[in-house]
Batch of 2 targets.
Target 1
Amino acid sequence: MSEILSNVENRVLTLTFNRPEKMNALTRSMYSGLAKGLNDAAGDFGIRAVVLTASGDHFTAGNDIVDFMNNPPTSDDSEVAQFLAALLNFPKPLIAAVKGNAVGVGTTMLLHCDVVIAGPTANFSMPFASLGLVPEAGSSYLFPQLVGYQRAARIFMTGESFDTDSAIEMGLVTANDPDPLAHALRVAEHIAEQPPQAIINTKALLKARNHDSVAAVMKAEFEIFAMALQSEEAMEAFMKFMSKKGK
């Protein structure tokens, strides 16, 4: 059973995180599958938009901590780095359907999406500092730009979570729908009917102002994240997290 499901219908590719028994915690092989899915879709004229979604009750619990501790993604060619690069450079509309927990990269990846639909159960959090780490995926640049410095600082530094209504008010999410996937597919199919080159050019123009800055910030974040991952502070935080989880 694949942990990343791929389905094309009406010129829309749906990529589904499919590890519901682990709240869709992302492993290296899942990052690799997502990067391949996005990169292949970028070059496939038959695909006009991509929807990211998840099986089960949760979008993703973030990184699989055990996989992370055993194989820390510290190199530029790691599966995580490949996924983040694919996300940053994806030229077509990217839409997300979120329910349940969207932890860490589960929230930061949404900052790269063009439209995010969330359900009433969605709960967003970026507890990097709580784990002895730093924000990633360009979020230290994109999130304060979206919500203002102080709000971003508070969320990053406390690790506190926020709900769908707050995410809509912040501009991270565009709609609250009990069936976020159906809503996301409607939006994606509507976009897929538009002239495709006009859509690609529109996205490029919308992203142009930030693209190079985000790329530079992502590189810096990744270097600091990789160093932090190997620190004693992070190891202690991970152990604390794992012991809580085991109770």
Target 2
Amino acid sequence: MGTSEFHGVFPYLVSPVDAAGEVMTDVLARLCDDLIAAGVHGLAPLGSTGEFAYLSWPQKRRVVETVVKAARGRVPVVAGVASTTTADAAQQAREMERLGCDGILATLEAYFPVPDEGVYAYFKAVAEAVSLPVVLYTNPNFQRFDLSLPVIERLSQVPNIGYLKDASVNTGRLLGIANRVGDRMRIFAASAHIPACVMLIGGVGWMAGPACLVPRQSVELYALCRRGAWVEAMALQRRLWDLNQAFAKYNLAACIKGGLALQGYAVGVPLPPQAPLSPEGAEEVRRALAAVGAL
């Protein structure tokens, strides 16, 4: 694993793009600055909330350039890399390293199902293309492949694959992974999991879109978990869970972009053909944010 140790709250950043297809760098930089001021431990552009599947390569590059410049080395930037082809994913990873990222969040896009051997070879190639720490990202709800436990165990032997971010809803799966990989790989939760529960079973933090909207509360929750103050942590977790539930109900990017708009960030709407947040969704998000003091 690399010299940096990733831990804590990594908001999955939105990708603000205007009607002409230009990345709105000013609002993205301001969001990064404010998240860092709120105490987040890292930034993760080009995750699911960052609409990686809808962006062109120049747009992806511009998003990451903006985030790296805004971070100014204050927190690590772990950028998403995703492709249907192994060669393209490795090339993306090399470019992210060249742009100054501190880590790679690697996922596989698949149109046809990919067997375990192909999944293993893809992630191994991405890791070997860079000297950065690599976070494996698996989200079986949206992907035509899964990182099976045997493949994860094999990938944990690759020196710079040191983390896994799992967006299944199965916290028991995370415990099974942790039991298999031992201290070779650290586990990050996603918004689909209850982060406090993942911390209790040995997770090191979470990478999630809702942390864009409630960074201070997320950092407080992390600090409570680290102190082992589980009663207080669960009291805060219960208050935050309505936001996670809204996030799960509506389009990921629409929900976070809609919430950020309520907070005064003109980040625009998701890239078509995705729909913007409905009025009903916006009201649900508004209520959830107001309830935790995030408006």
